[in-house]
Write a structure and sequence with these properties.
The strands form four sheets. Strands 1-2 form a two-stranded antiparallel sheet. Strands 3-4 form a two-stranded antiparallel ribbon. The protein has helices spanning 24-32, 42-62, 67-81, 100-117, 130-134, 140-176, 196-217, 241-253, 263-268, 271-297, 327-351, 361-385, 394-402, 412-415, 417-430, 434-441, 446-452, 455-458; strands at 4-9, 12-17, 181-186, 189-195, 223-224, 258-259, 308-309, 391-392. With 473 residues, the protein is mainly alpha-helical. A hairpin with a 2-residue loop joins strand 1 (4-9) and strand 2. The protein is built from 18 helices and eight strands. Helices cover 57% and strands 7% of the residues.
Amino acid sequence: MADTRIERDPLGEKAVPASALYGIQTLRAAENFPISGLRPLPAFVDAVVWIKRSAALTHSETGRLEPRLADAIVRAADEVLTGEHRDQFIVDVYQAGAGTSHNMNVNEVLANRANEILGGERGAYAPVHPNDHVNMAQSTNDVIPTAMRLATLATLPGTILALERLAHSLLGRGVAFDDIIKSGRTHLQDATPIRLGQEFTAYAHTVERHRDKLVQAAEWLRELNIGGTAVGTGINAEPDYPRLMVGHLRQVSGLDLREGRDRIQLMQSMGDVASFSGALRAYVLDLNKIANDIRLLASGPRTGLAEIVLPAVQPGSSIMPGKVNPSIAEMVNQVCYQALGLDQTVAMAAEAGQLELNVMMPVITHNLVFGLIIVGNATRVLAERCVDGIEADAAQCAYWLERSPALVTALAPKIGYAEAAKLAKEAVTSGLTVKQLLEEKKLLPKEELDEVLNLRAMTEIGVPGGKGIPAGG
């Protein structure tokens, strides 16, 4: 048996591996773009296959495609969607503009497999042809923008679940730590008291807000330009085609999708994609901040803040015995830096469209979907392998708090800002705590002093010891 078969395209003949489901155009692309070794993400493959499957059903419904050919294409598509033939999608992530190479890779795989199902041979492209039948009424220019949006929407639920998992974990720590009062810090300097539980509850609410924003930003992606064909005008597509396509895509994907109001606009502009990427970026910035805060609060165990203790997930040093590092939080930092770079690429590529098309869609799609995947995974792991197991060191929190000169803030309504500032400075230079200094100076009666220095009261809205403030004070 021959190891290759000869195929032809407008550029000439080429030997294609006899066992390959892909064909000559896919092979040319693989040879042209030996760039990264990265293959299309599974969600992107699924999205394009969904489109081909839906098109076959649509054309069978309208009578444009013979039912037996449509059925064979659908069967071939279903094989791919259940995990078969995945090694046949070989075009590098960095490829010719718009994604023509990947589109043809899918067209050829489905055509060859459909022909086998019908009793034909690979490479003969009869009775099913990659362009004439699998790609009927389609262009790369409406297939790839549609697939980009489908792949993003299909990946999003896993990321949303991860955010909900992290928010739940942070809220749990917020409840567990609600009675632990500690020194707040602003500008990395001592500030008024806060409860450790308040810090973690605030982190949770931050994550929840970003979850809601991501869901909101995804709404723009639900409008599809399928049926726009080459430049958005719909040449070679039947008038009912866009509506029928969206219906079949809803069914196969399970996604809430809408027919685009202006297919030309959706082909010209990547604004909806850039906006969604920006929403992911905003979450990543806060996620990175949370990871950094966790590392800072856990710093120590003797020469740092050491207010929380992280679960030990692995030895921290190859030379220092017993050292344990904040490994999970450090991983999250690295993922966040990568995700910020991915968003920057999306932004620059989204701006790079000209006239009727943005040809940078392959890199936009890869970076956006990849970003969702790694950020979602990092978020989930942070919850499961770090936040869930965080413990508080209440004694250490109390140790730092009683030494904080910022406690004089509660005295300002009583004695004025200037006098309180003098006390803070004296506490620092003398080494005395604020309470010791006030007891020594006897500026206030003991009962009133205890009211003013009620640490729990300092963590809630109101004026500590406020009942003793003179009228108009």
